[in-house]
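Quarterly update, task 2.4: 1-deoxynojirimycin-bound model.
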Amino acid sequence: MHLTEFLFALPKRVFNPILFSLLPIALFGQSEIEFSIDTKVDALLSKMTLEEKIGQMNQYNGFWNVTGPSPQEGYQKEKYDHLAKGLVGSMLNVRGAKEVRAVQEVAVNQSRLGIPLIIGFDLIHGYKTISPIPLAESASWDLEAIKTSAELGAKEATAAGINWTFAPMVDITRDARWGRVMEGAGEDPYLGSLIAAARVHGFQGSDLTAPNTLAACAKHFAAYGFAESGRDYNTVDIGENTLHNIVLPPFKAAADAGVKTFMNSFNDLNGIPATADKHLQRNILKGDWGFEGFIVSDWGSLKEMVDHGYARDKNHAGELALNAGSDMDMESYIYLREIKSLLKEGKVSIEQIDDAVSRILKVKFELGLFTDPYKYCDEEREKRVTGSKEIQDAALDMAKKSIVLLKNKENLLPLKKEGQRIALIGPLANDKNSPLGNWRIAAENNSAVSVLEGLASYTGNTICHAQGVRLVDTIPAFHQEVKINTTDKSGFKAALKVAKKADVVIMVLGEYGFQSGEGRSRTKLDLPGFQQELLEEVYKVNKNIVLVLMNGRPLVLNWADAHIPVIVESWHLGTQSGNAIAQVLYGDYNPSGKLPMSFPRSVGQMPLYYNHKSTGRPGADGGDTGSVFWSHYGDEKNTSLYPFGYGLSYTNFEYSEIKLSSDVFNSNGQIEASVILKNSGKVKGKEVVQLYVHDQFASVTRPVRELKGFELVELAAGESKKISFTIGPEMLEFYSANRKWEAEPGTFTIYIGTNSATKRKANFHFN
Ligand code: NOJ
């Protein structure tokens, strides 16, 4: 935008101060110059009082019913006054075009400079139309579909006034006890990095000033996913090696993809709460990675540093956070109350404040909020876009792609379309709430298509439904613990009755929608409540069971795997859940999902991940496993039940041996590794061909294998295709003993196959 256009586009309160600083340039013939955002930020910053600057660093949660009368007393009145005085830079959880307009009007029309608010919201897996939980979407390994899902989430949310999402969560997660595994892309940094970038691109689009894109936020910086014993908010203690090789890559990928904001995290990392971690925020993120956006704290995480015993008091917490590079305070009220005195005492500097404010203003300019603060507040558009066919169709498409077929013995699936008597059993079979998953703040309760409803659109079979086990609460509040019944088995009788007479039994079991997610850690990874018992009882009367799982984390499924012929992992699939599941069960969609997290055999294996290190026992050659003195459990295998990358199809895929174009290359070269993939089954299907690399010897110990490439391929029945991967030095890089990313010469093994346990391998040398 040219200067004169820019000046006249400004809200009137911003217009005046900026006009005076930039007018001379405009008048003296330079109005055709494209003014950089940095120039505009500097001009605005130079007009701001200290209080106004601090205000930009303050974020409040949504408060009074904004379209009603303004609050007259109490803390809401205080917040309202702060908004009107320009002491609030952002609000979260205000939503709806009309509501957002109302708060924006207070900020723009009543504050001295009229700086618009940036409106944050947890758009994690859809706004009103809910898409699959992020872990489920990650199981698709379909980067385009994941990007589209974020894009359409942004379309719906921006129509409701939101212009900043606290997503993607890019935390690597290895411990299924942690409830927030549902919110990320699973255990692998390579897959996690690609998905992080896809989500950022989806949310932010190619034009951030467009009314249907929003600023994204990579969170939680850093290592929040490594909470000890999987208990949310717990201490994290990991070494540099894990931090750099496993935790940081998806954050770096998000930064490289141009993510506009980061969120730091609640956890203490190696003795320092992440909110006060200067090395992470100032040295790595803003320094080494050149990140130019801003960092928001997590909810009250400044204040929690007092509880961690790291900050003496709130004033000290403000000092620590700002010094460390945390730019905006979410709901701790600390920056607003403490920065002024901290500055006076010389504990923080005006440069630090100016830097934080500039970063925040810059993102506001980049969003185009100064040009039109109300561009997300078009009620007409909101009506048109919310729940539109385009968004529903994309949610259905994503849901189908997210389903993972774990077992299909005797090809019980796909179901026959006619003449079958189907018993549909389980507490989640007709539940319209659980499929919405955890982050569904704006969705209507009970708005998902249930499995019963989805199956009903196939009319050739007879369906008899029985819950078997009740849900304790059907519509819980967001913050409530929810239970699947553990005290009442009275529903078993009806379930067994329908099961006995059925040709096929479909059992829909798993976790209630709020059983995974923030604060939802578990010590058990079983089917909660009486569900396991119900499954075993039904099995006694009918063995033709299709087990459909709805859950937000890997579960322990040993008994089911040993007995039940068919297991379908459907996660929490969102609004279109039942339709997607029905289409997969009936074979109108051939499942192609692959697990983004290992499924354990026992909770005692946690944390469990495929890319672990070797130990000295047994040795690399298999060693002596006859004695007890090797790294194992006395009562369980070391391996997962279903490995990372695992998932079946209704067709079969055959792999040829690996062919290498050469078995040696150097730092200027590369080689090609290829396999021939053949669809040897009877129907069209998709396969994710996966490439893993193992560095046999290095300056720091390296994982037994690491995903370094994959290709999602669709083949018609009988079709073959050559799948090639280019292997160059960058694929071999890691954070070495030299504390930098580099590839070290040596011998490497690559594996190419259908999941992380594949044995098909070849060796090459890198000089
Ligand atoms: C706390 C969560 O940790 C974070 O992920 C979320 O964005 C904020 N609350 C805001 O809701």
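Highlight for this quarter: The mean pLDDT is 94.
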